[in-house]
Amino acid sequence: MSPQQMFGAVYKTYFAEKLGLDPKNIVFVSAIPCTAKKFEVTRPGQDVDGMPGVDIAVTTRELGRMIQQAGIDYKGLADEKFDQPIDIGSGAGAIFGATGGVMEAALRTAAEVIEGKPLEKLEFDDVRGTEGIKFAAYKLGDINLKVAVASGTANANKLLKGVQDGTYDVQFIEIMACPGGCVNGGGQPTQPALVRNTVDLKKLRASVLYKADSDKLAYRKSHENPLIKKIYDEFLGEPNSHKAHELLHTYYIKRGK
Ligand code: SF4
């Protein structure tokens, strides 16, 4: 499942129970850069005990317009902490929105789990950047891992065809449908041509996410986030447990030709 659906599923089960709420009385709204996620809310295989995990998906473009229409001085708002009880995020989560970010977050965890010791350097620079297809190779313990990252459907097609016909030898692939990743998602705020033609928005927006994943953060790896650990300890059991599969996984069917 995508992060929004996982969040909705965990909120309407584990957190509803912890907060003493009836999940039927929860309206879960997600703010996302992605028009496809509006469709995803309605897909089969996304429900939680017969309820939708996410009730309403609002794109960042729509949210921006609502903020403008309400006359809110967004830039003047003071920073606030996340609401309890989901109040801890990690740097690995922040970089998910840039092409290569999901790969880097996964590599941080995989490297530490395989090598059994903390990583000296958390940045996997070779999978960063806005190129349409990126390749990199890493040695994790005894494993020689070759990875590929593609963004944009034309690049995804090229990469997958290359894997199928043996041109590319890779074991781990990240694909994002939008060129540059979610930072350039179909639901992001639009910009006038003057900005689009003079500013590399994909690069600029990605740089903001990499800045958010800074040394000042308490947690930069997903597996170190104490909230995630708690959810597994108290509720899901372990990764790939029956409950985790039931709540966090979905299925896909072939549509069209
Ligand atoms: S890459 Fe595009 S389609 Fe995929 S989740 Fe991000 S915004 Fe949505």
What does this molecule look like?
With 257 residues, this protein is of the alpha/beta class. The chain folds into two domains: 1-88 and 234-257, 3-Layer(aba) Sandwich (Rossmann fold); 89-224, Fe-only Hydrogenase (Larger Subunit), Chain L, domain 3. Helices cover 38% and strands 13% of the residues. The protein is built from ten helices and seven strands. It has helices spanning 3-19, 36-40, 60-69, 91-94, 101-115, 153-164, 193-196, 201-212, 226-236, 242-248; strands at 29-32, 47-48, 51-52, 56-59, 133-140, 143-151, 172-176. The strands form three sheets. It has a three-stranded mixed β-sheet. The mean pLDDT is 95. The protein binds iron/sulfur cluster. The site of iron/sulfur cluster (SF4) has 10 residues, from helix 2.
Detail the poorly predicted runs.
Answer: none
Radius of gyration, rounded?
A: 19 Å
- The total strand number stands at 7
**Shape type:** globular
Mean pLDDT: 95
Largest sheet: 3 strands, mixed
Structural domain tally: 2
The CATH superfamily of the largest domain bears the name Fe-only Hydrogenase (Larger Subunit), Chain L, domain 3
